[in-house]
Amino acid sequence: MRSVRTIIAAILLIATASPLRASEIPQGERRSGFSFMTPETQAMQKDDTSNPGMLWVLDGETLWKSKTDAAGKACAACHDDAHAGMKGVAARYPAFDGTLGQAVHGARDLRLTSRPQPLDFTPICTMKRRGRSIWGLHGTSFSTAGRVISDFVAQRCAAACPSGGLEGRGSRRG
Amino acid sequence: MTSALINVPAKAKRGDIIEIKTLMSHIMETGYRRTATGEVVPRDIITSFSCRYNGVEVFRADLFPAIAANPFITFFTIATESGKFEFEWIGDKGFSETASASIAVE
């Protein structure tokens, strides 16, 4: 009996404690983990030339402007300068489409190519912008039925966002 | 795709010691590795790097198979006058890349 009481007490305690844990930090007080670093570490992180990862960002910048696609279009053709146009976009990808049960990786799956791209981790949509780098992955996990599905997604995408571009609808569904 | 990252201070005082950092994208294949079928993977490395400051060579390095991929080379020089740093990487299989950066010395 005593142990049952202890368990109930514990459950109550957890129940009352959880709202505390779930309470969010006010918008104004939120800060990046970057601000907790020492100045030396911050300087190291700010230095792009010491970070080999930035080589891929440069590659991404080149890919962004090059017409590598079968449709003869570069990313920049629709999205202009990624420094301005793609700010914050990557944070919303890959988006998961609940209806399709598929991950939607980006516009490249939907509008540019005639065939779905194999999933590779080329950070094609990367642009160098300190503190707000965009690391978009392209490619898709669409299988053999991918063509049908991607056409379907393209239609839905166009309907949901007439201005074109998945960036507009962004948030996760499902 | 070849790309290089260069870090040269945009400006410096005359006589200052400045640090120059370079990072070159390269696989640096040693030539000692073998494929699954036992064939030697041919050597493909950068063999030399040089830096010229307004046409005068201030730094040169020879690179060897033990150097890891994407060689990061950093060195110091004295800022004497405003001008241009020119970097050059030369390697196997006709690899040759150049990059440049300018500095303003007051």
Question: What keywords describe this structure?
Answer:
heterodimer; A: 174 residues; mainly alpha; two-stranded antiparallel sheet; 2 strands; extended; B: 106 residues; mainly beta; 3-stranded antiparallel sheet; 0% helix
In words, what does this structure look like?
The complex is a heterodimer of chains A (174) and B (106). With 174 residues, chain A is mostly helical. Chain A has helices at 2-22, 39-46, 53-65, 75-79, 82-85, 107-112, 146-160, and strands at residues 95-97, 102-104. Chain B is 0% helix and 52% strand. With 106 residues, chain B is an all-beta fold. Classes of the chains: A mainly alpha (174), B mainly beta (106). Chains A and B meet through α3 of A and β1 and β3 of B.
User: What amount of the residues of chain A lies in strands?
Assistant: under 5%
Order of helices and strands of chain A: HHHHHEEHH
Task: Give the helix level of chain B as a range of percent.
Answer: under 10%
Mean pLDDT level of chain B? 94
Class by SSE composition of chain A: mainly alpha
The total of beta strands of chain A comes to 2
Helix/sheet category of chain B: mainly beta
